[in-house]
Amino acid sequence: TRPFLDQYVVSRPLYTEDSFTENHEKVERKHKTTLDHVKQYFTCDSKRVKNAALSLVPIVGWMKMYRVKEWLLGDIVSGVSTGLVAILQGLAYSLLASLPAWYGLYAAFFPVIIYFFLGTSRHISVGAFPVLSLMVGAVVTRMVPDGGPTVNITGLEGLSIDDQRAMVSASLTFLIGIFQLGMGLLQVGFVVIYLSDTLVSGFTTAAAVHILISQLKFIFGLSVPGFSGPLAIIYILESIFTQITSTNIHDLVTAIVVMVVVFAVKEINERFKSKLPVPIPIEVIMTIIACGVSYAFNFKDNHGVDVVGLIPDSFETPVAPNIEVFKETAVDAFPMAIVGFAISFAVAKVYAVKHDYVIDGNQELIAFGVSNIFGGAFKSLASSTALSRSAVQESTGGKTQIAGILSAIIVLIVTLAIGFLLEPLPKSVLGAVVIVNLKGMLMQMREVPYLWKKDRLDCIIWIVTFLASIFLGLDLGLAVGLGVELLAVVFRTQFPRCSVLANISGTDIYRDRKDYINIYEPEGVKIFRIPAPIFFANIDFFRGKLLDAVGFNPLRILRKRNKALRKIRKLIKKGELSVTIVSPLTLTHSRELDQPVDFSDLPVQVNWRAELPASISVPPVDIHSLVLDFSAVSFIDISALKGLKTALKEFIRIDVEIYIVACDPYIIEKLKSCSFFDHEIKTSIFFVTLHDAMLHILERHPPLSVSEKASLIKENSISITAKCTV
């Protein structure tokens, strides 16, 4: 016969933590001390040197497994396609940084060479990224506005505004690389985990809005001064609308035509991507057409259209960074280093999962750090990656970073040989291309209704990050968003959803009693689930929720009982209450007794669940056992430990039995080392599972039948029982 696979039966002893430890011997493990970890970190042998060298130069690993016949053609096609897109985006994104167009070309060449050797992702396209370019542009325009530098910086004297801005950008890029390299060497690539998808989505959407507005001056052909800092976006819009009547119609019409055509063809590419061998490079096609039309009709001289202009046919000589710029931009460079790395790492993870290989976050930091240091020395724009450009590299058949190095060669050819052909290109065309490529980031706004329905706290993070980044600037907006996100984490752990559990009838499964119909909740037992770590910030919240669950305050009950006991002693002393030895002993009113009796040496135990004499009232306690489910408690700190101990003692002192179930053994060890246990709180209250504790409770307090309940009510008509030792 076929065995039953949808059920199981287990026969085993009932386990407390103590009995489980006695019956099952643990493996003795030596836990490493901090000194052991330090020694291991600095221990050096040939194998470790080899692994370190291979990890620092990942190209050695993937070049050994390169399949020339299968991958080379795809890498060549991908490299050419990506190179053409990188040229156009480099020119466009340099405008976001308020730099001459050719510095964007440098970002598509110098960093790519370094990443080819040091990067672990095989599919991302390294180069300019619009959000990072915009953040660089905010610093550049702040330090070197249109009227010249606002601060006296040594080394910038006698330079033109473009050269000054290029020097500031290069030094900033160099500093971004230093931060990234430092974090990589210190193995702190984990910092990106604090940038949640929700925060990044809100931040990049706000950046897209900034980018869109920053490109309007090129679309309308207006001269708008650079603004930076809080409310800069408002000042830019104000400047645009005050000049709107001076719009250059040729710029506007050219931009609209380019946007419509590029958007339409991109939709065709997306819809028929399975049938097209490679996506139609519409941006490149429209750029060539726009260059030809602009040159033929002399847009620059005849119609006042702002064009790209002179593109040098050689690279600039490397320069040392400006230390004074370092001092002025250090606060700005760090968030840029984080943002640049976070975006590139997120894109790299997508392709690593898709193509089944591993990327190393710390090595990626090192790769981008060295790339930006090298690029900064040659006045390159700060580099990261762009999703659209990486998508081109992957979708056109790119298998490795050979496609990346080929794209850099295409950029090199254009820069040194045919860059002059791009000189008549209108900047409005570049602005139009940038705006069309913002579609993906702007469409992230559709996440807001979904987040509001599914997780309102995440929705608040998105909205706050978005609004702060819009109105305060991207740097402050990122800081505000990160602060709100960390507060949300604290809020979730400080105010989690506690619940009272009940047994699903016929099983050993326990769920929230509010969610199910067919449940069993033993009389006199409360099961309270704590779904978060217990620490100084939420211990009071847990105590409050626990009191709500049981329906009474044990400290108040204890005080009431002490007052009642004090009153009983006074009544006995006055002779208004006597002790009669029955079985068991009871205290009764002394209406028939003439002589007072001295009860000072008589041990008396009061049955608090019975009716008390002399109109003495104490709030009833309708539970005898309280079970705390610690299965989701990952740690307890010292402050919370003290609060927990106090709370447990309050229940124990009013005769409520406490049980803690499914507690992590390491937490129990910590409780032992912190002297948590004493004559009131014992290790025997810990049970391996919730069902073990419930079976133990039912054994100690068997459910009463109807006749037994009636008998108990009759017995409780006796007011107070006394315990006498004979």
From TrEMBL:
Keywords on record: Membrane, Transmembrane, Transmembrane helix
GO molecular function: secondary active sulfate transmembrane transporter activity
Membrane topology: Multi-pass membrane protein
UniProt cross-references to PROSITE patterns, sorted A to Z: SLC26A, STAS
Record bears the keyword Transcription: no
Gene3D superfamilies membership: STAS domain
Main localisation: membrane
KW Transmembrane (keyword) present: yes
Membrane spanning residue stretches: 72-95, 101-118, 125-144, 172-195, 216-237, 249-266, 278-297, 333-353, 365-382, 402-422, 460-491
Protein location: Membrane
Source organism superkingdom: Eukaryota
GO annotation, cellular component aspect: membrane
Residue intervals of the STAS domain: 515-697
PANTHER family in the cross-refs: SULFATE TRANSPORTER
Name used for this protein in its record: Solute carrier family 26 member 3, tandem duplicate 2
